[in-house]
Amino acid sequence: MHCRFEHSELTVRFLAVDLVRCDWLSERLPVPYAIARDEWPAVAVEVQAGAQGIEATTGAMRVRVTPDGRVRFADADGRILRAELPPDHQRGGWVHRVSLAEEERIYGLGERAAPLNLRQARDAGGGATAFQMWNFDMAGRYGPGADPLYISIPLYISLQPQGSYLVFYENSFPAAFTFKQEAVAAFEGGALRYYVGIGPVEKLLERYTELTGRPPLPPKWALGYHQSRWGYETEAAVRNVARAFEANDIPVSAIHLDIDVMDDFKAFTIDPRRFPLLGEFTRELARRGVRLVSILNPAIKADPDLPIFRDGMERKAFVSTPDAQPVIAPVWPGWCAFPDFSDPEVRHWWSEQYRHLLSLGIAGFWHDMNEPAAFVAWGDRSLPRPTRHSMEGRGGDHREAHNLYGLLQARAGYESLRTFRPEARPFIVSRAGWAGLQRYAWTWTGDTESSWGALAMTVAQVLELGLCGIPYSGPDTGGFRGNPSSELYIRWMQLSAFLPFFRTHASNDSRSRAPWTFGEPSLGIARAFIKLRYRLLPYLYTLCWEASRRGVPLVRPLFWADPGNARLWDIDDAFLLGDALAVYPVVREGERAREVVLPAGRWYHLWDDQVLEGPGSIRLDAPIERIPLLVKAGSVLPMEEDGHLALHLYAPESGAFEGTIYEDAGDGYGANRIERLRFSRCGAGFVLERSWEGDFAFPYRGVRIFVHGVRVGRARVDGQPVPFSGAYLQVSDFRTLELD
């Protein structure tokens, strides 16, 4: 649908029955770095024109454009979900306004130190926050209200009584978003190209990641516990940490090396004195089941004696001033040049640099300082805005390229790991990024202060990132800078155990964050939650597989389970982990009980099988050794216990519930196994039906069945009676389990 106005034009293209792309006339379209799918099947659209404007309709969506340039998006029944005012195009930028209903909630914009519902955010003067689109280095510490942060994504989701919609602006220029009576998006430059989808939030995320790409399945080890610290300065220090985990009976999957590992902070180097035999050391740790992940900064020391700098200069690989001189700015190694990742040849050159560290056994990379960050005395901690970038050969300045920088470095790194270690799945954690980052990397919430406020904001941050298509994130457990009390550390550990990226990290001027730091009872509590995390790996890994297929996040807001319940719309101190688990962390000092707001349905308390009925709320005990964890009735929660697949059955009120368990070797691209479960009430009893497909052999010693919510008198496995006494039923295999 194409509409002409006196001073502008608008093209509306249906990519699907519930997703459109809108283009207001622009001189230059964006380079489609965020877009993974640009070819879509034709959609049957009915177009009608009249005095009130032109309307295009599919079976799911209506788009009306009025003669004065207003645009209305409605569902098939005509309920208006989004009402746009005509955009303003001035001084090379755009201002786009959308009317908001009083009860309308707004979520998204990437990483924010704000409430989940962004309309609740307030600035220092009590007014609505103006959220900045400019990836920013927080310089070692930040707390609630800081803005901007490291990942800015011009996407938001609206939730209102009549439905929900998602809008993504494909514009990487600096911008400000405010949400008062109107949602205002003000871009300093670029095109006004945006995508609007309508439908349930779950479907919106599926559509958005169909557009911008689905996250690949990670290696299973990445879901384990990661230990990190700026200050593991030597091979001996790291070895001692690994041994201490064994001595304290705590599992660990990865140890991260901060800038201590590098030779004078230079990218892609290893200090030969402090890590003299890194290849042998990585193999030693691998025998213990521990991987090494190394930090990597993009800035290259501007030293003519350094081969990578000389090579980069010869290739013209660095971003430049308008008069074609390399931009030089101070970072950790001193004066540095910055690769231009918007040049495909530079990305290929950068990818080659990972080969040596991969050959030494480094299992993954941690991209830091890639906003890009520079050390400056005042002002913006990045490169000058006139800095020139290739932008795939068409040219552009740093205003356009800045927010893309971390995304494109992650792309180069991902392609390197796929090339030089094709048998393994890449693992990259990137501090900065933009739309589409989920195709290449995980992220973390950066350099938070160690405070109760920073702990509390973590839930909303991870939820916002998930609602922007980035499903793998988590905090520096305990906070990056500062010294948490044992209580704060334990509450942070209890939260992090249920987030996708479970890592402890700290600055070099903070006390250790290792689980044994605070002694007992903190050590025992930390050990118990880390071990619970590993028991949950079958469930978590299946959620990862779902994310790779559908783009839905692992961590979801409570309203995901009950979107019609407005009481859930603003809750940002609790969340769902998949569909089965509801997690209610303690985020306030001294709290030993907390209110639990329940989505609709029946829920069981994980710790004691207490039955809770939703919707509603209840106050539950939260002693220091635990937090409220609820399991949805009808769920089959898969866990791993003593080498067995443990299926925890939570009795449904009625009906049938279906679930899936995904299994493979945990890495690589070989065979897999998909188990499908159907759990239903049958008269006074229950039936669990199990089937599977795929060539991967069943990886467990057997199956243990735990039943919650009912007492089992009789059990039949594949039609044969079996005794069920004690805590669980153990079988080698089965297809049908009947319980009375």
Descriptors:
alpha+beta; 18% helix
Structure notes:
- Helix content is 18%, strand content 31%.
- The chain is α+β, with helices and mostly antiparallel strands.
- Strand 15 (175-179) and strand 16 (182-187) form a beta hairpin.
- Helix 10 packs parallel to helix 11 (522-535).
- The protein starts with a strand and ends with a strand.
- The mean pLDDT is 96.
Secondary-structure blueprint of this entry?
Blueprint: E1 2-4, E2 9-16, E3 19-24, E4 46-50, E5 53-57, E6 61-65, E7 71-75, E8 80-84, E9 88-90, E10 93-99, E11 105-110, E12 131-133, E13 152-160, E14 163-169, E15 175-179, E16 182-187, E17 193-198, H1 201-212, E18 225-229, H2 235-247, E19 254-257, H3 278-287, E20 291-296, E21 300-301, H4 307-315, E22 329-331, E23 334-337, H5 344-352, H6 355-359, E24 364-367, E25 388-389, E26 396-397, H7 398-401, H8 405-420, E27 428-430, H9 452-467, E28 476-477, H10 486-496, E29 502-504, H11 522-535, H12 537-550, E30 555-556, E31 575-577, E32 581-583, E33 593-605, E34 611-621, E35 629-632, E36 636-641, E37 644-650, E38 656-664, E39 672-682, E40 685-693, E41 703-708, E42 715-717, E43 720-722, E44 729-731, E45 736-739
